[in-house]
Design a protein that fits this description.
Layout lengths: L4 E2 L7 E3 L2 H9 L5 E6 L5 H13 L2 E6 L19 H10 L4 E3 L3 H4 L19 H4 L3 H16 L3 E5 L3 H13 L5 E5 L19 H18 L6 H13 L4 E9 L13 E11 L2 E11 L7
Parallel strand pairs: 2-5, 3-4, 3-6, 4-5, 6-7
Antiparallel strand pairs: 1-2, 8-9, 9-10
Helix pairs in contact: 6-7, 8-9
Length: 296
């Protein structure tokens, strides 16, 4: 009896753990297919990705894979939350038909791959500067999963803006037959961006973490005044919270990730990364810089 494909809950998704089980399950799907790629520890942000994907496709495939390639030595791979059964319950609740939940030996049967996708210079700034090689690991696994799942659409959250940009570049530059669709960041009522890493935060840490979203909101209120005002307003919030150890706070062009000059008017991305307690958090907000710009 084959036990690598199972249905964990009544009316829940089919779960494939191997390539051999994924292939026939994928071939059985008729119509358009969307994928939502996750590392597990699903939360309401992932649920919103799934709901948005269901509006665009006949079927949604969720992948659950904690990718070791995107974690450097000393990062939180060993303590990253793994909650597969709860993840599958969320998938069942959201009406997902197929989940691909492989182990590393399935995705990388020969061990760490000798050939990887390079993120190039865009992968060396911001998150890439703090986490060298991170985006090469991300793009390599995304490429493999796109080949395996063969979706028409792939949905990713705006919270990981640099990752989203690089996946779009890879899909364009390497001619993947898939449309990449961004979904706005999902936040708690107090503004904290949802993240699987939020489970690491103590109550005190969580209060500190709110300074990131508050800084973004403060910057957004200054879009009509120009880039310098946006940066200054965001920075003023963060300097009042010394327990948030800021890695970067930048206002960049959303395609080049280059800092926008003071004369610039147009779309921009206000992005922040900081360590709160033992947890590294990121957040961002797309903006339109210039007189008459909308403020969120």
């Amino acid at each position: 009896m084959n036990t690598s494909v199972h249905n964990p809950v009544a009316s829940g998704p089919v779960v494939a753990h191997t390539r051999e089980d994924l292939l026939p399950a994928r071939k059985s799907l008729r119509g358009t297919v969307a994928t939502v790629m996750t590392m597990g520890a699903l939360h309401e942000g992932h649920a919103e990705l799934i709901r948005t994907a269901k509006q665009s496709a006949d079927h949604v495939i969720v992948t659950i894979f904690l990718n070791p390639l995107q974690f450097a030595a000393g990062e939180d791979l060993s303590r990253y939350p793994q909650t597969l059964e709860e993840d599958l319950r969320i998938c069942a609740r959201e009406g997902v038909g197929l989940v691909f939940a492989p182990t590393p030996d399935v995705v990388y049967p020969q061990g760490e791959p000798g050939v990887r996708v390079s993120a190039g210079t865009l992968g060396e700034v911001l998150e890439g500067a703090s986490r060298p090689g991170h985006f090469d690991g991300v793009l390599t696994v995304v490429a493999k999963l796109l080949h395996l799942v063969q979706p028409d659409f792939a949905f990713y959250g705006q919270k990981d803006a640099q990752q989203l940009l690089l996946i779009r570049r890879m899909v364009r530059d390497l001619d993947f037959p898939v449309e990449v669709i961004a979904v706005p960041t999902v936040r708690e009522d107090d503004g904290l961006a949802l993240s699987s890493r939020n489970t690491y935060l103590s109550a005190a840490d969580r209060d500190v973490a709110l300074s990131l979203s508050r800084a973004l909101q403060a910057g957004a209120q200054q879009v009509a005044a120009g880039p310098a005002a946006v940066r200054r307003a965001a920075r003023d919030v963060l300097v009042r919270e010394p327990l948030a150890l800021v890695d970067y706070l930048v206002l960049v062009h959303p395609e080049s990730l280059e800092q926008v000059p003071e004369w610039y008017r147009g779309p921009a991305l206000l992005a922040v990364a900081a360590k709160v307690g033992t947890t590294r958090l990121i957040d961002n907000m797309p903006l339109e810089i210039g007189p008459g710009a909308d403020v969120e």
